[in-house]
Write a structure and sequence with these properties.
The protein is built from 12 helices and 56 strands. The chain is mainly β. About 45% of the residues are buried. It has a 22-stranded antiparallel barrel. Strands 1-6-7-4-5 form a 5-stranded mixed sheet. Helix 7 runs antiparallel to helix 8. The longest helix is centred in the first third of the chain and has 29 residues. The protein has a domain of about 475 residues: Beta Barrel (Maltoporin, Chain A).
Length: about 1100
């Protein structure tokens, strides 16, 4: 694995330049060839080139771009079921300006277009919004991995806007078109059977697609059925160096070197000291003063990985996608249709996680090191490269922990549509009624096998910046006996925790729309006028396992389980507490956690559980096949959770490990109540009018459209607010009034008052004009386009209405006065609670005002607004060739919603200090350019005339004056989540029998975020809370990605086709890292937080057409 700290800009420019020259040369040769062929000769031998497959698809995509009403790019399937990629997300990423996002866990996420994130991109299928099966703030999904490409006819990425388009696509709108029952002239049955394999997995699994269509009743009724079954088995290997976002952290001066590791930016007094001995001269702090002495010593501490751990994710996705469609031609003027598209995904995944312990190290105010590490090796740049953890020598306990986190997801999307297309004379009318439903259910289970070990050695892998670990050869971690829990003196073994957490989400959208077009022959430049209306009704529901106070003294229990598993030996148990086998409630002092249980087994039963479920992690070598993997672990012993859970169920009552309690659950009064869900509704009613025109400007055809869309949005929701009353004990109050010192931890009592359901109903309106122009200096060959539009994207539902419940605490004037006295006595004891901390409801703010935890929504938010502009030049020298250069600008008028604190938020006549949202600032300007081209090399000799190529390159920059800097180096950080460039190149060959395609994709690295974990000890950074003793935090970047995919198919007969395909053939991996200009380990070793590798994927199969 090679991590580059800089972009290979020179290489990219050379590749782009070479691509442009090659395509330009090809286009020029094709033009000359066409000119030559236009001159008749008596003896000329014309060699026919049949336009099929890839070339036909490229021609179709070129024509779609050429005739578009605004700026767009398109991808068209070679044939039925022969889309270039396996899912729509991968396909869209081939288009200029589109960058596919990958989540931190390595799974495909959404995508950005022209630097605009997933929530500023609209995705629709045959005009319907694609919906999310998981919580995305109640908005549409742009992670298209669940939708099979076998059902797709074409994909258009529209980067401009016309008035008849549904708003929301600030970066662009992705329009997916499926086939209709009247598209085919003859009956057809097509079967695609293939097997797939992940290079990290040993098993092959099937992927089957079937397509059938036929017309009836004199070709007036067309029936189409398309079905795909995909059993995808994926292994995701992850090696982590960091605990969350902590990275390397200072853990004591391990080598006593005289030089600093870093200079603190948070304490000028400490920063001014140049020697470690000088730290001792600084005074010890008093009260809440900054601890400059400790901050001084911290500068000399060496950097250690915060937590070395490993994970192999084994995911099985069984996806079922289908399309059922019927089209009926009522007469020559009217066609009606109905369709149903279900997408089901049954996902079972295991995360086999391995860890030992986090290293520790501190420096006392006397400069004395206390650390758990032994035999430490430090390099010249103050980075630890090796250390040992030893039981009984720095570490009280030391365990090898093998955890399996098993996740079961059941996601489904259903899309229903009915429509009518009327076309008579000069009138065209399209009517649609559409309904989409998406549901997702997720259940997480986790358990750990723990083996006591005498020691562990941790070493850096210099080839890739990751770490590996080992135990003494005398320790056999493949033996079940190594994981038997230790028996205590009371006859009970050490306990391990069995976790269960459910989640559920549901969203739906009902859409009605009618579009009417009136064409004209002799109405000046006006070609047609188009107008329409649309109504969308969007519902969103989210269920989480949280507890709720329903009324005074009544608490709804949590839906999760944190159960304990243990064994008991009767002969070792005291007579006063004999073994009680089976299931019992787990003792808890917290009311909301009364659903937890304890499972007590016999020693033989527990040992049988371990013996029967212990195994090596599935698949091949860990990170196998990755270039530069170094001496990473090859494998480790894990266990099969399903085997473990099934056998445990023979001895224990696991009935509460189901999602029922997520919807209705037992409460503290013994009754069952419906669990409140986070529910919102948004209704959008809109109307538009637009005009298409055509005229001549200086003798050149000028084609365009102008229109305006009006929309009214109504948001309704019923968020919950829990009101607590904060009081102070009268005796404590008397002491405070007398000036006596009291215990600050025991003075405030929080009492539940009520749970209120608030009604939110807000309306807002938008006027969205758009203009698109296309000037043809060379008619039908060269066009210059310009477009400008006002865009609006709605905020997330959670930003409009808040989360499911906010807890607001209030106090009367006497209590407030007492608390202010208390604060004056203990100024460091009272800090603002974290607004998202569910346990902070009983805390009080340092300024002693009424406050609410969790964010309160703001239904007055306008949403993201921007003016978008496009300017492009496009050349179409022949039907096989397109070359375009474009510029774009996005001028933000209202930015992403920001978090803000409001001190006079009124609830039932009381004023509270709350955290809520406000509209983001204007002024951000995003600019960029795109260059793209494609051609068929028909002018080349021999079989080369069956080849073709395409490329695109996109680059964008913003004027964002990013005030974020890396506090350690003082260097500015770039705008977050914005790659400088993306690049795609593809080559294809298609002679009618042999079809081959190679596609290369590259995305540049980008800055992700700077986020402190609790162990970073920094102020004023997301996640940082400390106030006197500071260390450091490190900015996180995501490595640039590159992929090479290839596919080849051969028609054995007219009806039978064989094919093979490979993905990620460059063995690309994903890493979060920090470039050398910010952190330099030395010796060329990259600073890595974690790396993820998914191996290659291969497909082989057969396509039969009847």
């Amino acid at each position: 694995m090679k991590i580059s700290n800089t972009t290979d800009a020179v290489a990219v420019r050379l590749m782009v330049g070479a691509s442009i020259l090659a395509l330009a040369a090809g286009a020029a040769s094709a033009v000359r060839a066409q000119s030559a062929s236009a001159e008749p000769t008596a003896t000329a031998q014309v060699e026919e080139i049949v336009v099929v497959g890839a070339r036909k698809a490229e021609q179709s995509a070129i024509q779609r771009k050429k005739r578009a009403a605004t700026n767009q790019d398109s991808i068209v399937a070679d044939d039925i079921g022969n889309f270039p990629d396996k899912n729509v997300g991968e396909a869209v990423a081939r288009i200029a300006g589109v960058a596919l996002d990958v989540a931190d866990d390595g799974q495909q996420g959404g995508f950005s277009i022209r630097g605009q994130g997933a929530d500023l991109v609209r995705v629709e299928v045959d005009g319907m919004s694609m919906l999310s099966t998981s919580d995305q703030g109640g908005r549409a999904v742009t992670g298209l991995g669940d939708m099979s490409s076998d059902l797709i006819k074409s994909v258009d990425v529209i980067k401009g806007q016309t008035a008849d388009m549904t708003p929301g696509g600030v970066g662009g709108t992705v329009k997916i078109e499926q086939r209709s029952g009247l598209d085919f002239s003859k009956p057809m049955i097509k079967l695609n059977v293939q097997y797939q394999n992940n290079s990290l997995e040993k098993k092959w699994s099937p992927r089957i697609s079937a397509f059938a269509t036929r017309k009836f009743f004199d070709d007036r009724l067309g029936i189409l059925v398309n079905f795909t079954y995909d059993d995808a088995r994926t292994i995701i290997d992850t090696a982590r160096v960091s605990d969350k976002q902590a990275g390397y952290i200072p853990l004591g001066d391990q080598d006593n070197s005289p030089s600093k590791t870093f200079t603190t930016p948070y304490d000028p007094i400490a920063a001014a000291i140049t020697s470690k001995a000088g730290c001792a001269t600084l005074p010890a702090p008093t009260g809440t003063q900054t601890d400059s002495r400790l901050n001084c010593y911290a500068q000399f501490e060496d950097l250690v990985p915060s937590l070395v751990r490993f994970s192999r994710g084994v995911r099985i996705d069984k996806r079922y996608s289908a399309q059922f469609r019927a089209d009926f031609r009522v007469n020559d003027d009217l066609v009606v249709f109905a369709s149903y598209n279900p997408n089901l995904n049954f996902q079972d995944s295991d995360s086999f996680n391995l860890s030992v312990a986090s290293p520790t190290g501190t420096t006392s105010t006397a400069g004395v090191l206390a650390t758990s590490m032994r035999n430490v090796v430090v390099n010249p740049n103050h980075y630890v490269t090796q250390y040992d953890l030893i039981r009984g020598n720095g570490s009280t306990t030391l365990n090898w922990t093998s955890q399996d986190r098993y996740t079961e997801r059941r996601d489904q999307q259903h899309y229903l549509q009915a429509g009518a297309d009327f076309n008579k004379g000069k009138w065209i009318v399209k009517a649609r009624a559409q309904y989409g439903l998406a549901k997702g259910k997720r259940e997480d289970e986790a358990f750990s096998f723990v083996a006591p070990i005498p020691s562990a050695t941790f070493k850096m892998v210099p080839e890739n910046g990751l770490w590996t670990m080992s135990v003494p050869s005398s320790v056999d971690l493949t033996s079940a006996a190594a994981y038997y829990p230790v028996l205590g003196a009371n006859g009970l073994s050490a306990t391990s925790q069995l976790e269960y957490t459910p989640f559920a989400d549901k969203s739906s959208e009902l859409n009605y729309q009618v579009d009417v077009t009136r064409e004209f022959d002799h109405f000046g430049p006006v070609q047609d006028v188009k107008f329409g209306i649309q109504h969308r009704d969007h519902d969103n529901h989210t269920w989480r396992e949280d507890s709720f106070d329903l009324s005074p003294g009544v608490t709804l229990y949590r839906a999760r389980a944190l159960d304990l598993v243990q064994y008991c030996v009767p002969s070792a148990a005291p007579a006063s507490a004999p073994c009680v086998f089976g299931t019992a409630n787990r003792p808890s002092t917290t009311v909301k956690d009364q659903q937890y249980r304890t499972y007590t087994l016999t020693q033989g039963q527990y040992q049988s559980l371990i013996q029967n479920s212990l195994k090596d992690i599935p698949g091949g070598q860990f990170f196998g096949g990755l270039p530069g993997r170094g001496n990473l672990l090859d494998t480790w012993s894990a266990y099969d959770f399903q085997t473990f859970f099934k056998e445990l169920g023979q001895y224990a009552d696991l009935s509460r490990h189901n999602p029922d309690c997520l919807y209705s659950c037992l409460a503290s009064d013994g009754k069952t109540y419906k669990r409140p869900s986070y529910s919102t509704n948004e209704k959008t009613t809109s109307a538009y009018a637009m005009m298409d025109f055509e005229t001549r400007l200086a003798g050149m055809p000028l084609i365009g459209n102008f229109g305006v869309r009006y929309q009214q949005i109504e948001v309704t929701a019923q968020p919950s607010i829990v009101i607590n009353n904060l009081t102070i004990d009268p005796a404590v109050l008397a002491d405070l009034n007398a000036g006596r010192t009291v215990d600050p931890n025991k003075v405030i009592t929080s009492t539940f008052v009520s749970r209120q359901v608030k009604d939110i109903n807000r309306k807002s309106t938008d006027f969205l004009p758009s203009l698109n122009l296309a000037l043809w200096p060379i008619e039908d060959q060269f066009v210059v386009r310009y477009s400008i539009a006002k865009q609006r994207a709605r905020p997330k539902m959670t930003e409009l209405t808040g989360t499911s419940a906010a807890t607001c605490s209030k106090m009367d004037a006497a209590t407030r006065a007492a608390v202010e006295k208390l604060i004056s006595q203990y100024p460091s004891q009272f800090n603002d609670p974290t607004v998202d901390d569910e346990d902070s409801g009983s805390l009080i703010r340092g300024d002693a005002v009424n406050n609410c935890t969790s964010k309160i929504g703001n239904p007055e938010l306008k949403g993201y607004a921007a003016t978008t502009q496009n300017l492009s030049a496009e050349w179409y020298p022949n039907r096989d060739t397109q070359l375009s250069v474009g510029l774009f600008a996005i001028d933000v008028k209202t930015g992403y919603p920001d978090t803000t604190n409001v001190n006079d938020y009124e609830i039932d006549g009381d004023l509270y200090s709350v955290s809520t949202y406000k509209d983001g600032p204007s002024g951000l300007k995003q600019k960029g350019f795109e260059v793209a081209g494609r051609t068929a090399f028909t002018f080349l000799p021999w079989r080369l005339k069956y080849t073709g190529a395409g490329f695109n390159y996109a680059r964008n920059k913003s004027n964002e004056t990013n005030t974020q800097i890396d506090r350690i180096t003082g260097k500015a950080l770039p705008p977050s989540k914005q790659s400088d460039f993306t690049y795609n190149l593809n080559l294809w060959y298609d002679d009618g029998r042999l079809n081959a395609r190679v596609a290369y994709q590259r995305r540049d690295l980008y800055y992700d975020r700077t986020e402190a974990a609790s162990i970073n000890r920094v102020p004023t950074i997301s996640g940082g809370t400390v106030t006197s003793y500071y260390k450091m935090v490190t900015p996180i970047f995501k490595i640039g990605t590159k992929s090479l995919d290839a596919r080849a198919s051969y028609k054995v007969t007219k009806r039978i086709q064989l094919f093979a395909e490979g993905k990620n053939l460059l063995d690309d991996s994903l890493s979060r890292f920090t470039p050398e200009e910010y952190r330099n380990i030395g010796g060329g070793t990259p600073y890595v937080f974690d790396s993820t590798y998914m191996g290659r994927r291969y497909y082989v199969g057969l396509i039969a057409t009847f």
